[in-house]
Amino acid sequence: MLKLDGVEVVYNRVALVLKGVSLTVPAGQIVTLLGNNGAGKTTTLRAISGLLAHERGEVVRGRITWEDNSLRERSPDYIVRQGIVQVLEGRRVFEHLSVEANLLSGGYTAGSMRSSRNELEMIYSYFPRLFDRRSQRAGFLSGGEQQMLAIGRALMAHPRVMLLDEPSLGLAPVLVAEIFEIVERLNREEGVTVVLVEQNAEAALQIAHHGYVLEDGRIVLEGPADKLRENQDVAEFYLGLSGVGERKSYRDVKTYRRRKRWLG
Amino acid sequence: MSELMQLTVSGVFTGMLYALLALGFVVVVKGSGVINFSQGEVVVLGAFVMSWLLTDVGMPFWLGIPTTVVVMMLVGAGIERFALRPLQNESMLALVMATIALGSVIRGLVPMIWGDGLRSIPSLIDQRRYEWLGIAIPTITFWSAIMVLILLGAFGFFFSRSRLGLAMQAVSDDRVAAQSLGINIRLVNAVSWAMAGGIAALAGFVWGSLLGVDHRLVVLGALIFPVVILGGLESIVGAVIGGIAVGLVESLSAGYLNDDLGAGFSTVAPLIMLLLVLFVRPYGLFGRPEIERV
Q1: Among the listed residues B278, B273, B5, the one whose alpha carbon sits nearest the alpha carbon of residue B137
Q2: A54 shares contact with chain B (CB less than 8 Å)
């Protein structure tokens, strides 16, 4: 079980971005974090994976534990060796390396080059397209293929928890569906626990067991995925529906903005 | 005709020695992405340490050369640890400026420790020339070039086949993504600088044997740039080809153009070639263009 308890993150020593986030990710589940731009979704993931330093961020308060083992102030490579691997937003494949070299580099913590080579087959069975393109430079892949490569590369590290940051970003709906289906299969067949950060709430809630809604660095709503889908606020603000099946008008958006300012 | 042959062959062999200078630079780019402006100075330091251990301390070759390599590897790792690691979350420009500062520091330290005079490195092999079909090559140049080839092969193999070599390439491609996969970038950076230090020790030995050891060896550092720009900043094969190209241009212009254009022209010729290449291929002949998808 992955647990965050009252986590606060500060950027540049002044900007408080996470204002006490607590959440629980039971092993074997898919948990999604929803929210607008700048709500703190990516920061939450980076706080878990230890990758805040590059953004001059720092966890200043709270506990982050995995199986009762504290992850706070641990190096990113320690956290990966505990089985927690983040797939960064924007895919971030190694553009100048071949697809296969990208995958092999993902196996860095898992063992020798030889054992990593034996893993490749499993990855290719999930992502047959990567097999077809295995000797190409990753920079020349399409966006969807790069996202598959980023997920496949993370799988090479034998993750028990995979932190996925906006895998749907910039992809056609067909590809989003394909990638989400693979994520679901990985969860079911390989038992990988998934923390899924998404703006595409509809797609995320379809495969998730549980969801949290972040707003301005705080969790404002949580619940089982099917309950969240029925929740009127979520339906209105994140799924873009005001009544069932109706499109939302711009006036409602303005009301929401006003309301949010009052509440925030 | 035989003059042309002679100039070509000695250009190629000297080029291999330029490749050795560039190799240390390439290893740092490959393993940490840093453009290291101090590699020339590190080579000078390597030459001084080598000459000190072999003459003043009186170590035999079999002990002195490996000792210098180890010392310089520690120097390289130390540079990474104390000069660059504190900057690891800063912009690349900050890191590059740090290497420039480092170069100046080493340039100042070396005469402070060893004085200003010309030192020498005892000769490992007797100074003769191999002659073959009327083409003469100094023994030291010949065997150094052979060593460089072996070294380049070893590094090429390391980068393409080993786990750490692959991790180093991943780090130079995208530091954050490499970290997200559990690659320890501190280790990778330290290893690449240690390698650059070890290579600098060997380069210092070779060039110190050829030219004598004094602070003027620093001018060699300026030749690293035409070599790596021609060959591509992170290509090992490119370093060889760039080195040979620079060696050829220098040797041929020394043979044919120096009489007309003045004795210093052969030193400038590689830099002119560098400019011309940059016009045509800004990322070098074997470099990687930034991949941009549209």
Answers
A1: B5
A2: yes
Contact A140 B291 (CB under 8 A): yes
- Cβ of B182 and A92 within 8 Å? no
Residue with tokens 């300026």: B222
Q: Supply the pLDDT for residue B259.
A: 73
pLDDT, one tens digit per residue, over A121-130 is 999 999 999 9
Beta strands A84-87; A161-165: pairing state: parallel
Write the residue in B89, B176, B184 that is nearest to A77 by C-beta: B184
Rounded to a whole number of angstroms, the distance from the CA of A143 to the nearest CA of chain B is 9
ipTM of the complex: 0.87
Flag if A76 and B177 touch (Cβ within 8 Å). Answer: no
Residue A51 to residue B176: CA distance in whole angstroms: 8
CA–CA dist B283, A95 (Å, integer): 16
For chain B, the domains span 2-122+138-280
Rounded distance between C-alpha atoms, residue A176 and residue B15, angstroms: 52
Contact present, B213 and B46 (Cβ < 8 Å): no
Measured between beta carbons, which residues in chain B are less than 8 angstroms from residue A157? 181-182
Please state which CATH class domain B2-122+138-280 belongs to. mainly alpha
Chain-chain contact of A95 with B89 (C-beta, under 8 angstroms): no
Pick the closest to residue B50 from B191, B219, B206, B218 (CA basis): B206
Instruction: Work out the burial of residue A53: count CB atoms within 10 Å of its CB; fewer than 13 is exposed, 13-18 middle, 19 or more buried.
Output: middle
Coil, strand or helix at B107: helix
Residue carrying structure tokens 């295995």: A134
pTM for the predicted model, two decimal places = 0.83
Give the Cα separation of B274 and B85 in Å (integer): 32
> Which of A52, A84, A105 would best serve as a mutation to test chain B binding (most B beta carbons within 10 A)?
A105
Closest listed residue to residue B192, CA positions, set B63, B120, B84, B90: B84
pLDDT at B71: 95
Inter-chain CB proximity B181 and A56 less than 8 Å? no
pLDDT band at A264 (very low <50, low <70, confident <90, very high): very low
Complete DSSP assignment for A152-168: HHHHTT--SEEEEE-TT
| pLDDT < 70 positions in chain B | 1, 284-294
